[in-house]
């Protein structure tokens, strides 16, 4: 079963959107396997966003994701990566399609509420930064 890493960023937490964001994935029929409320330290943030090191938005991104608590999750399902990214919407809130989380609630690329892995490789690289395998449950999911 395909898995993805989803993280509600500090702006999503501050704005009280944890429930709304989880609800969209639940209603779609995706399966929640793990969830954790935590404050990211710089080391974990650097590991997570290593592919963006050197880009203009890298330092502000690290500062932002470590600025307050985040809600980290693992979701599963057929095509879960493509499905969650469709629900989240494009990185830039201006071009995110209407009805997506970022179109409905975000106004700025730097404060775009939620992260979703963009490939199987990145999902499987990101998940262990936040969860050990024994924290990820396995149960039958009938939809
Ligand atoms: P996220 O899905 O967490 O992945 C990288 C993050 O960097 C992205 O969401 C944005 O919050 C932030 N970011 C800021 N500017 C850009 C950009 N031009 N391209 C990609 N990501 C950006």
Automatic annotation (TrEMBL):
The protein's matches in SUPFAM superfamilies, at most eight in alphabetical order, are given as: Nucleoside diphosphate kinase, NDK
What does the record give as the active site? 115 (pros-phosphohistidine intermediate)
What Enzyme Commission number(s) does the record list for this chain? Answer: 2.7.4.6
What residues does the Nucleoside diphosphate kinase-like domain cover? 1-138
The record's top EC class is transferase
- Give UniProt keywords alphabetically: ATP-binding, Cytoplasm, Kinase, Magnesium, Metal-binding, Nucleotide metabolism, Nucleotide-binding, Phosphoprotein, Transferase
One of the record's GO molecular function terms: nucleoside diphosphate kinase activity
List localization entries.
Answer: Cytoplasm
Q: Can you name this protein? A: Nucleoside diphosphate kinase
Q: What is its main location?
A: cytoplasm
Is Magnesium there in the keyword field?
A: yes
Q: What does this protein do?
A: Major role in the synthesis of nucleoside triphosphates other than ATP. The ATP gamma phosphate is transferred to the NDP beta phosphate via a ping-pong mechanism, using a phosphorylated active-site intermediate.
Q: What InterPro entries does the database record attribute to this sequence?
A: NDK-like_dom, NDK-like_dom_sf, Nucleoside_diP_kinase, Nucleoside_diP_kinase_AS
One protein family per Pfam? NDK
> Gene3D superfamilies from the xrefs?
Nucleoside diphosphate kinase-like domain
The UniProt catalytic activity note for this protein reads: a 2'-deoxyribonucleoside 5'-diphosphate + ATP = a 2'-deoxyribonucleoside 5'-triphosphate + ADP; a ribonucleoside 5'-diphosphate + ATP = a ribonucleoside 5'-triphosphate + ADP
Name the coenzymes or cofactors required. Mg(2+)
SMART domains membership = NDK (SM00562)
Q: Give the multimer and partner information.
A: Homotetramer.
Family membership, please give it: Belongs to the NDK family.
Report residues binding ATP. 9, 57, 85, 91, 102, 112
PANTHER family per UniProt: NUCLEOSIDE DIPHOSPHATE KINASE (PTHR11349)
């Amino acid at each position: 079963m395909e898995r993805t890493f989803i993280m509600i960023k500090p702006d999503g937490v501050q704005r009280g959107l944890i429930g709304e964001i989880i609800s969209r994935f639940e209603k779609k029929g995706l399966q929640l396997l793990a969830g954790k409320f935590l404050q990211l330290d710089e080391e974990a943030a650097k590991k997570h966003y290593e592919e963006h090191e050197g880009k203009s938005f890298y330092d502000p991104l690290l500062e932002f994701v470590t600025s307050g608590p985040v809600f980290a999750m693992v979701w599963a399902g057929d095509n879960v990566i493509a499905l969650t990214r469709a629900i989240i919407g494009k990185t830039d809130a201006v071009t995110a399609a209407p009805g997506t989380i970022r179109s409905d609630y975000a106004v700025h690329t730097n404060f775009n509420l939620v992260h979703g892995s963009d490939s199987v490789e990145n999902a499987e690289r990101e998940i262990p930064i936040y969860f050990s395998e024994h924290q990820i449950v396995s149960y039958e999911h009938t939809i």
